[in-house]
Amino acid sequence: MPLSSSRVRASFFWPQFVFGLLHLALSSPMIYLALGLPLLMRQHGWSGLEIGLFQLAGVPAVFKLLLAAPIERAPDERATPAHQARRYRAWSLALGAGYGAALLALAGVSIHSARAVLFALLLACVLLATWADVPVSALQIRVLPPAERARAGGVRSAAMFGAAVLGGGVMLVLSQRLGWSAPFYGMAGLLALALALLPTLRMDGAGEDDGGARPSAETGVQASPAAWPALLRGFLAQPGAWRWLALLSGCFPLVGAAWVYLKPMLLGQGFAAEQVAWIVGVGGGALGAAASLLTGLLAPAARLPASLPRATWFGAAALAALAACLACQASAAWLIAASGWLACATGISASVAFGLMMERARPACQAADYGLQASFFALGRLALMPLAGWLLDGAGSAALVAALAVASAGMAALAGRWMDALARGLAHRNKERIQAL
Fold first, then answer.
1. What gap in Å lies between CA 109 and CA 107, rounded to an integer?
2. pTM for the complete prediction?
3. What backbone torsions phi and psi does residue 106 show, to the nearest 5 degrees?
């Protein structure tokens, strides 16, 4: 007798929980290093230039495709999907262990250590976290069936908001009360727990809903050692691939940029630092996580292409509302409401983005395809942030958010125009699965 849909969903609760915990453990230290550490540096007399130069440690996120290449190298046509899943798991455990060691090494130094030592350890953390994200995400795509991937996008987005609360709030308080080392020990412990749960996932059923796809010339992965240019060409050969990468680079960083700069903008509106922490860090994080999970539950994979323009229009409306509140010097209640709308829009956009990234990954090379898409996602974000900061300094917060709203509306119109091409690309992927059965 076939399993009911509710029983099938229940059978994947544990994998979704494990992957959500893994993404939380991988992301929390990055949030702390990006948002919490600069505050500590400032407290100890670091210049703005020194703090800015340390942010260059985030550059490895742009090169996820290159980092994915060794993970996808030398596939064997005789290997089963379960073998591929075990390879992803082995890479996840090895890189996660290295990441944990780097966090413990940071716990062993202090804010007063040599700048070169701190930068080297920070760079090692970012590199290993960025690298570990590739096999973890590839394993998530491999283990979960297509019907669960939209929900997985929501879980991942919610984990990112949870990381913002944990790394951007809780760990910062911990450092103030217990000292420099405490946050790093705590985050290393969380990572160890998540990695310890990874072997509990079943690998024998991996890939069943992808038709048991194996490496082939059609997917761009050869039986001989594969080079990343071949993987890139294979991904770009899919219908609508270029348009999807353009939307991935342009749609989602717009609300993300407003979310990053929301804290200083609220400070400029007269809110106290602790109020901003509660409004954005705790309240906004909770709203973003809830919106992410609901999007994953209510937007199945087949509807993700149609969800993209809707999510982008929703984000454009949130940006326009926030811009109006800032321009009119609205009351605290209106600013808080607009901030909550932006938090929901950010969560919805991230959930749709991660869901589509999973759907776009080909069965035989999830790591490479995820790495390529993540590189474009990071590139769009890194390119926009300096421009947004320059506009904030030169024209003010209302002008910045208004410009982001206009750009988001343009991207929403483009996403609506290209929706059919995106749907054809996913239909092509589903046809590959059916032919492989």
1. 6
2. 0.69
3. -65, -35
Examine the pLDDT at 222 and tell me if it is beyond 50.
no
Q: How far apart are CA 117 and CA 355, in angstroms?
A: 38
Q: Residues 237-260: pLDDT tens digits? A: 777 778 888 888 888 888 888 887
Which range in 160-164, 262-266, 328-332 is most confidently predicted, on average pLDDT?
328-332
Q: Which residues contact 192 (CB under 8 A, 6 or more apart)?
A: 100
Distance between CA atoms of residues 357 and 403, nearest Å: 27
Nearest alpha-carbon partner for 81 in 14, 143, 152: 143
Q: What string of H, E and C letters represents the secondary structure of the chain?
A: CCCCHHHHHHHCHHHHHHHHHHHHHHHHHHHHHHHHHHHHHHHCCCCHHHHHHHHHHHHHHHHHHHHHCHHHCCCCCCCCHHHHHHHHHHHHHHHHHHHHHHHHHHHCCCCCCCHHHHHHHHHHHHHHHHHHHHHHHHHHHHHCCHHHHHHHHHHHHHHHHHHHHHHHHHHHHHHHHHCCHHHHHHHHHHHHHHHHHHHHCCCCCCCHHHCCCCCCCCCCCCCCCCCHHHHHHHHHCCCCHHHHHHHHHHCHHHHHHHHHHHHHHHHHCCCCHHHHHHHHHHHHHHHHHHHHHHHHHHCCHHHHHHHHHHHHHHHHHHHHHHHHHHHCCCCHHHHHHHHHHHHHHHHHHHHHHHHHHHHHCCCCCHHHHHHHHHHHHHHHHHHHHHHHHHHHHHHCHHHHHHHHHHHHHHHHHHHHHCHHHHHHHHHHHHHHHHHHC
